[in-house]
Amino acid sequence: MNRYRSGRALAALRLLLIGFVITQQAVGADAPAEPSQAAAAQTQPTHNSLTPDELAEGWILLFDGETMFGWQANSKADWQVADGVLSVSDGEPGLLNTTSPFADFRLKFDFRREEKTNSGVFLRTAAEPKDPKTDCYELNIAAADVSPFPTGSFVGRQKASETVDAAGRWSAVDVTASGGHFVVTIDGRAALDYTDAKPLPRGRIGLQFNGGKIEFRDIKLKPLGLEDLLAGNTGPPSEPVAGWKVFPGKNSTFTITDGTLNVKGGNGQLESGPKFGDFVLQTEVFSNGEHLNSGIFFRCIPGEFMNGYECQIQNGFKDGDRTKPIDCGTGGFYRRQEARRVMADDFKWFPLTLVVAGNHMAAWVGGYPVSDWTDTRAGHENPRKGLRLEPGTLAIQGHDATTDLSFRRLRAAEMPGR
To answer: Are 350 and 331 in contact (CB under 8 A)?
Structure first.
């Protein structure tokens, strides 16, 4: 179980800045910044943070700027974090991989290399890839005199149209991966447009150490291809919600108005029609009360009451310390792993992202990674008793008489290649 720890003043400052962006300028904030302030936030974003526009578009931070939470190395190399930069310069060749896989996405990151560095960013990769032509897409970072596939190339697949980076300075990379089509720009200039007729469906993001120092920052990702789960529910308030089932005999009231779902009253459950096994889900949540309790259940046993894994919604924290969540904390996995930091506030809309694949699950709140858990229990049909891999329904929870929460832009997509 990973835990957030930071004893450094710079780390605390960064978290303060992230919290400010989320609580003061995030999606749906009640009092937007003055135009001049908003413009400054857009043109001069803090490194390893997300702008209000990025939050609204569904971007998440893969690197929080302070820890390697959500990453896992497959070799013994000296990966380290300092001054908001993730770097490596010595050790065994290998990858630092995300613990979560992704299918279709847009990925942005900055890198800085030395003259003789040979590195890369692996897309849709296996945890320990063997051949870049078959089990990953290796976006190379290297000078033309170091590798036959210079920066911006897919190793073993296609060379970059031109070399656009330079040693010793930061370069910004933007990658779109949609099905078998990949488009790469570096510092705003086209570097690669590649199509794979038999694409790898999904995989991790891997940062490579192969020789020479390499540094990364501002690693962020936006999932693509998510579908609106509340589609068709428009206009005046309606109940029940089309395509969803209200569990009978309970006290919650579920209504939807102009695409926004609200749950009030005592305990209850609204269950999706479609089933999801390995998936990405994104939504925006509003808690209309102090420390209200709700959750999004997933891989539920269809037709049963709240019988699934639970991604908790509870914005309270103890002693004024956001690293001490009350009752698991928003984005934590109830009774499994607490959120390492409460990143949401009551009475403000906040984004929530959930990625589930195999026995691994992770959540981001306000774009910030708050949980990362692997279910190592023996397999069982009932996720309360063991590992459930079988696809199941989603469920929105009504917790008690105080419940008053809203959900909008509720979107999800099953990941291919399970």
So the answer is: no
Strands 268-276 and 279-287: unpaired
Residue 37's φ and ψ, nearest 5 degrees, are -70, -45
**Helix, strand, coil fractions of the chain, as percent rounded to 5:** 10, 40, 50
Residue 75 counted as domain residue: yes
CA 9 from centroid of its chain's CA atoms:
26
Q: Are residues 376 and 316 in the same domain?
A: yes
Last residue of a domain, one of 162, 194, 223: 223
Angstrom distance (rounded) from CA 293 to CA 266: 11
pLDDT digits (tens, 9 = 90+) for 57-81: 999 999 999 999 999 999 999 999 9
CA angle 85–73–169, rounded 5-degree value = 30
Residue 351 belongs to what domain range? Answer: 227-414
Q: Is the pTM of this model over 0.85?
A: yes
Q: Which of 382, 378, 258 is nearest to 309 (CA)?
A: 382
Q: Which two tokens stand for residue 386?
A: 């063991």
Question: Count of CB atoms within 10 A of residue 36's CB?
Answer: 8
SS3 42: helix
- Pair (178, 279) in one structural domain: no
Residue 179, pLDDT > 80, answer: yes
Whether residue 215 is found in the same domain as residue 262? no
